[in-house]
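Appendix C. Worked example: CopG family transcriptional regulator
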Amino acid sequence: MGSLSKRSTVYFEPSIHQALKMKAASSHVSVSEIVDEAVRLLIAEDQEDLQAFVERKNEPEISYEAFINDLKAHGKI
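Step 2, the predicted output written as structure tokens:
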């Protein structure tokens, strides 16, 4: 299991668990390593999203209604 050191119980639907076990067997890694990597990717994606919010914080805001009206005014809808 490498350097993984904390334990947690995770419940999967039976078919998802079966697919996960098959992937682990075919890729020669543990289920724990696959789940750990998946969580790392999700956290990295969250960090990218948060960074995008920071980068766009000074952009002007527009309401949904104003946006729809703008699309209509420009013949988009």
